[in-house]
Amino acid sequence: MSYFRAIEFMHPWWLLLLLIVPFLIYRYFKGRTVDDATISIPHVSTLASSFNVRGWMYKALPFLRWLGIIFLILSLARPQLVLKEEEVKAEGIDIMLVMDLSSSMLSRDFNPDRLQVSKMVAKQFVDKREYDRIGLAVFAGESFTQCPLTTDHRILKEFLDQLQCGLLEDGTAIGMGLAAAVNRLKESEAKSKIVILLTDGVNNAGYIKPMQAAEIADQIDVKVYTIGVGTMGSAIAPMSRRSDGSYVFGRSRVEIDEALLREISELTGGRYFRATNQQALEEIYAQIDVLEKTEIEVTTFKRFSEEFRKFLWLAFLFLGLEWVLKYLVIRAIP
């Protein structure tokens, strides 16, 4: 079907001749209402199979003729296959996602937990940023770059899928996570550079202070959007860890240093958001997507492939098949 959707006609007025076909069909069926002369032949049962095949062929003749006429008219209209080429010039934005992997991200005020929802919503955001380079940094008590800036969003989403708590020393080193992202953006020549930092806690680890990292970001024109993830009040969260690595859960108060996150964003020209549930987090990423639009210039070129020969050959095929069946196979009298 995509083939026919890409067809255009250079001389579409020839298509008006298609109105002849319904008239021919009408005349054919109207003529059949007239009683034909018949002749009685005794004991035709031995000729039944031969008679039926020829009878079927005879009934097919007008349909072959009509199809031949239709394709002949279509070929006169000169169908062309439109081959489109697009040249895309995009002034992309370099984006570093910074994800908190502290054990508190396993809190169950989100379903199933904060980390899984954060990963899912981040992947949805990545899918919308087709022309941007995006990277991923993670932090807990320490930090590292999980994925450098790339346009291969498939690889990036695979890294997001692999994120889990417990791989790093526990803690919340917000300054370290932000510094890792800023370090990846310092050599970027993109028109716009942004960091989206997501955390659910209070900075309590790392040798780089959050505001120190924010000042460096501001100096190299990196805009930082911060997101605090967690419900208001308390939530079921990891309290301790067993020797086998599993977590012991209990009810704990949700503490997010909103003042710090807001200060980081204001210093760098970004915004602070609070996500208390999955829907709120999705809306936050949607807002950031709108705020940071990539400028795209698309130039479309059209090329045409002449297709009338295919239609003409089909017309000859159907008309020729009708003639062969009528005068060589059925041997009808003209």
Features:
single chain; 334 residues; alpha/beta; Rossmann fold; 2 domains; 6-stranded mixed sheet; 3-stranded antiparallel sheet; 10 helices; 11 strands; 42% helix
Please tell me about this protein's structure:
The strands form three sheets. The chain has a six-stranded mixed β-sheet, with helices on both faces. Strands 1-2-11 form a three-stranded antiparallel β-sheet. β3, α4 (114-128) and β4 form a beta-alpha-beta unit. Helix content is 42%, strand content 26%. The longest helix is centred in the N-terminal third of the chain and has 29 residues, at 48-76. It is an alpha/beta fold and 334 residues long. It folds into two domains: 2-28 and 49-83 and 301-329, no CATH class; 93-293, von Willebrand factor, type A domain (Rossmann fold). The model has no long low-confidence stretch (mean pLDDT 87). The protein has helices at residues 2-5, 20-31, 48-76, 114-128, 153-162, 174-185, 210-219, 258-268, 278-291, 308-329, and strands at residues 7-9, 79-91, 93-100, 133-139, 143-150, 192-199, 222-229, 234-241, 247-253, 272-275, 295-306. The two termini are 40 Å apart. α6 packs parallel to α7 (210-219) and α7 packs parallel to α8. It contains ten helices and eleven strands.
